[in-house]
Every structure is written in C-alpha cells, then in structure tokens.
Amino acid sequence: MDEPIRESGPHLAGLLTPALAEDGPLYRSLADALKRAIDRGEIALGTVLPPERTLARSLSVSRATVVAAYDRLKSEGWLESRRGSGTWVRGPQTELATPGVDAVATGRLFLSEDGLEQRSGPGEHLDDHGDVIDLSVAAVTGSPTVEQLLSSLSGDDVRALTGHHGYLPQGLRALRQLVAERFEATGLTTRPEQVVVTTGAHQAISLVARQTIGEGDPVVVETPTFPGALDVFRRFGARAFPLPVDEDGVRTDLLAELVERAQPKLLYVSPHFHNPTGVVLSEERRVRIGELAVANDMVVIEDLAMGEVALDEVTLPPPIAALTPTAAVHTIGSTAKLFWAGLRVGWIRSPTDWAARMLATKTVADLGTPLISQLLAVRLLAHSDRIRAERRKELLPRRDLLCDLITTHLPEWRFSIPRGGLSLWLTLPRGNADELAEVALRHGVLVVPGPALSVDDGNRRCIRVVFTRPEEELREGVRRLAAAWAAYAPTTTRSAARLLV
C-alpha cells in the first residue's frame, strides 16, 4: 500500500491562519477553513493531518481549539481517526450532505431552531464521557397531548385538503382566524387578513427584513438575542447595532440615543420571556419603543414565540403593537416553543397597510407553508390550555432543578431565575465563554457561549444552558460542566489564544 501524504503543522497552519481573524469561536472557524481547503483540493483525500498539539503550536492556539475543530469535522464525516495512525481526511459522506433527522439520530451535526449547529444522539463519544449531553437547544419534545393530536388526522381530514390544489400563500383560513382571536385576547385588534402563516418564526423575521432592509442598512437588535434573527439580518447585509438587555428587558434609555445616532430602519425585540434571559419587557418600555418607532419611521419586529412558555404565575403586558397601534409593528408567533419545533409553523401579524406586501413576499418565498402542518397547528391551538399545563408540569421542576444544581456545583456563577422560557442565562465570574464551551465539549456537554447570541461578539462571560432535557441529563450535564469549569478556571487569566488544558 502506498505511503499516505502526511501534512505538516507549519504548512497546514499557513492555509488556516486567515481563519483566526474570522468572527465566532476559533474552533468553528478552523473547521470551516479546513473544509474549504479540502474542497479546493489543497489538502488531498487520504492525507494524514498533523497531531492536535503540533497544529496548535503552529497556529499559536490552544490544543483544545484544534481538538474541537477536528471533532466537529469527524462528526460531519470529513475526518476519521485511525488507531495508531492519527487523523485522516476522508471527505464528506453522502448521507451527511443534508442535515436533518438522520443527523439527530446518529449524533452528527444538524441545524437547530436557533440556527446553531448542534451535536446530539447516541453515536457521539468524546474522551471517556460517553454520549454528549446537549444543553444547547432551546426546543421541546412533543408532550402526550401533542403526540396524540399529531397522530389524529383521519382520511376525511386529509381529503378536505387534497380536494384543493394546495397553494395557499396566506395560510389556512381556520388557522389565521385562531391566531387573530389569540391576538385579540391580548388586546391587539387583529383581522385574519392581517395574518400570514409562515414556515416558522425564522421565516417571519425574514419576510419583514426583505421588505425593510438592504445592504448596509442599520438595524438595532437586542443583545443577547435569538441567533436566527442575527442570521437573517446578516444575510441581507444589514449593519446590526446591539441594544443591551437588563432585568426589565431591552434598555429603552439607550435605544433613544441609538435611534438618533444610527437612524435604524428596523428594531428586533422579544418582549415575552426573552430568549435567552427569560426576562419580560415592562409595559413602560413597550410604550417607549412604540413612541420611538412612530417618531423615527422605524419598523419593529416583536417576537412573541416564547410567550406561551410561562412557568410562574405572571401577567404579560400587551404586545407593543397593541400599545401603539400607529407604529409599524410586526408581531410574530410560533408553534415551536410550546408544541414542537418540527411542525415548522409560525405566523406574522402586520399592520393593515403592510398586509398585502407581506402576502406578496410570502408568495414569492415558497407559495405557502405545508397545509398538513397548518391543519395540525389548528388542532394544537384548540388544545393550547391543556398543552400549556403539561409543559408547565414538565418544565417547572426542571428549571428549579437546574437552578439548584448550578447553585450547588457552580456557586460562583450568577443567574436570575426566569419566570418563563426554556433556559438559564449564566454569568461566569471570570474567563471567556467561547473557551469554556470548547472545554465543556471535551467533557461531554454542549452549551451555547454568549458571543454566539450577540450582535458584536459580546457577552463573553455568559453562557446559555437549557432546562428542556430530562432530570437525569440535567444532573449529569451540570456535573460535566462543573468538571469543565474546574479544568478551565485555573487558566482563565491567560490569553485566550494560549489557553492550555
């Protein structure tokens, strides 16, 4: 057998060094750069890559960064480990070309509702820790009622849809009627004609952005935030300005100054159980946002997708659109957070003078969200009170357990107990969240570092940990996270680029 090509550390570092200047975690940038080099033929299939420590020394980064980059590409099928002979390039596997259900089942990477690549499933192993425990995805599995309703469609139900040609860009009338009634109950006057059904909240954000912003246009985005929104604004080439969040939601005192200075075309906020902090935007601040929107001809997206997941008894203020009816506010909802993200059904309520434009934009996008999913959404919404009670019974003990576990095993970490939502927003006493997330991955637990949820690579001492997983996984996940912190904490005064583990 021919001797394989053995790549040297200095030569490979020369190909990958430009990636060190890219935004985001170093391991992700290195992994992406290595894939590009393989795709371009600069690194041949069958090449043996240098050991992690050798490449780390050549790049002047931590060994943990290179290990995480290699592990990521092994999960995607680009690399493989061979006992006694190192890490080999084998090229992407055909079955991994399209992320989806198979990726979840086999422990490979897939795109989550949050727009982040995640690792999950029984096939993934790191060191001696067994399967990775994924505490990164802010999404729920189906409750008993959800499972029952999703399997309840009859032949007559299906025939009622298949008797139609199937193109309904605005969405099923029954679903839009239900959504309008739900908005009415919050004080937001809504007609079904103002509602467009979307393929998830992510598409709803995209439809507004397409109508509002272009290359170089300024937008204001809360920080931290839903990363899917950041992806949308970046795709349209917008210049995003961060707006900090405190215990009462986005800081409108800073917003007034930011609006005057940047003159943004668009503001994105999540007023109900903000993702990831769980805070509720006060009514006073909602009113102020509406006033600023009217005075400055600024469009507002208020994302209420998390609003259904109340864990404590809390009365939510009315939507911004209800408090300031003359403002150009688009209000978004979704089936993802309360019911199940796999349904991929969301909606957007727009001002009357925007309704026709939003429908036209949706028509161009995909001619309509799948009707079977919409029919199932109608049934779920009709039983939302029962499902909401199931969720609270499921999630409240998990939230309280995670809070207790963090307090016990990581007492230096700070957090506020969220009254709703799916996650804890944790502040480290020192160090860098990107670095800690890499170390945590080596210890077999996946969390989201604050910079991944931030406009400006901020929140560097924060991480998001979800409490959607079963209690035994939360216990083991925090145990591994505490072990990762113990391994990382002694080195946190060193430069990020020279971190040693």
Structure description:
The protein has helices spanning 9-16, 26-39, 52-59, 63-76, 101-106, 144-150, 155-162, 173-185, 200-212, 227-235, 252-262, 283-295, 320-323, 355-366, 371-382, 384-409, 433-442, 471-488; strands at 48-49, 79-82, 86-89, 109-111, 117-119, 133-134, 195-198, 218-223, 239-246, 249-250, 266-269, 299-303, 329-334, 346-349, 423-427, 445-446, 448-449, 462-466. Among the domains are: 1-94, Arc Repressor Mutant, subunit A, CATH 1.10.10; 148-385, Aspartate Aminotransferase, domain 2 (3-Layer(aba) Sandwich), CATH 3.40.640. It has 501 residues and is α/β, with parallel strands linked by helices. The protein has 18 helices and 18 strands. Strand 4 and strand 5 (117-119) form a beta hairpin.
In short:
This protein is α/β, with parallel strands linked by helices and 501 residues long. It has helices at residues 9-16, 26-39, 52-59, 63-76, 101-106, 144-150, 155-162, 173-185, 200-212, 227-235, 252-262, 283-295, 320-323, 355-366, 371-382, 384-409, 433-442, 471-488; strands spanning 48-49, 79-82, 86-89, 109-111, 117-119, 133-134, 195-198, 218-223, 239-246, 249-250, 266-269, 299-303, 329-334, 346-349, 423-427, 445-446, 448-449, 462-466.
